Amino acid sequence: MFPFKNSRFSRLPSGFLLEVNKAPSPEELNSLLSRCNSERHPSKKLAIALKNSFCNLSILEEKTKKLSAFVRITTDQGLNANLWDLAASPGDYQREFLGVLIHHSLAIIKNKLPGCSVSVAAPPIALKVIENEGFIIDPDGIRTMAFRIR
């Protein structure tokens, strides 16, 4: 691993576990996105996205295995890595879960994809956490754009 600006996000609260590379079902992820007031995705397209992602990180309740937070990493295997569907259930641990996901995502990218620039599509609740991990919000006024394919 490597040092982060905010290393308090390297560990999860008691009762939760981090699962790497075993993606949740599209239904589980859409349920989490709904709880977070985020946009849901068509299940078939989401299944393809999860399968073709470089890495998927999930935070699960240890006892129930209920999905509490999620992010997926995509990459061109060269210059760029992107974090998508960053979400954490509202509640006491929401910001902490977001921080853990970002922290571990960056560690994976740094280890397996050194030199990649990293972008993240994030909900407003995550902006402070992202800044604390060293991201620059809209660098040089550059804003991301999205095109929804139906």
Can you tell me about this structure?
- This protein has a single domain, classed as Aminopeptidase.
- It has four helices and five strands.
- A five-stranded mixed β-sheet has the order 1-2-3-4-5.
- Helix content is 30%, strand content 23%.
- A hairpin with a 5-residue loop joins strand 2 and strand 3.
- With 150 residues, the chain is α+β, with helices and mostly antiparallel strands.
- The chain starts with 15 loop residues before the first strand and ends in an 18-residue tail after the last helix.
Write the layout of secondary structure elements.
Blueprint: E1 16-20, H1 26-35, H2 43-52, E2 55-61, E3 67-75, E4 80-88, H3 94-112, E5 117-120, H4 127-132
Parallel strand pairs: 4-5
Antiparallel strand pairs: 1-2, 2-3, 3-4
Q: Which features does this protein show?
A:
Aminopeptidase, 4 helices, globular, alpha+beta, disordered N terminus
Tell me which CATH architecture applies here: 3-Layer(aba) Sandwich
CATH homologous superfamily title: Gcn5-related N-acetyltransferase (GNAT)
**pLDDT < 50 runs, ≥5 residues:** 1-6
Reported by name, the CATH topology is Aminopeptidase
Average residue-wise pLDDT: 86
Please identify the structural class as seen in this structure. alpha+beta
Largest sheet: 5 strands, mixed
Shape: globular
Tally of distinct domains: 1
Q: For the largest beta sheet, what order do the strands appear in spatially?
A: 1-2-3-4-5
Element order, helices and strands? EHHEEEHEH
Determine the fraction of residues in helical runs and give it as a percent range.
Answer: 25-40%
Can you identify the CATH class? Alpha Beta
User: How much of the sequence is in beta strands?
Assistant: 15-25%
Q: Could you give the count of β-strands?
A: 5
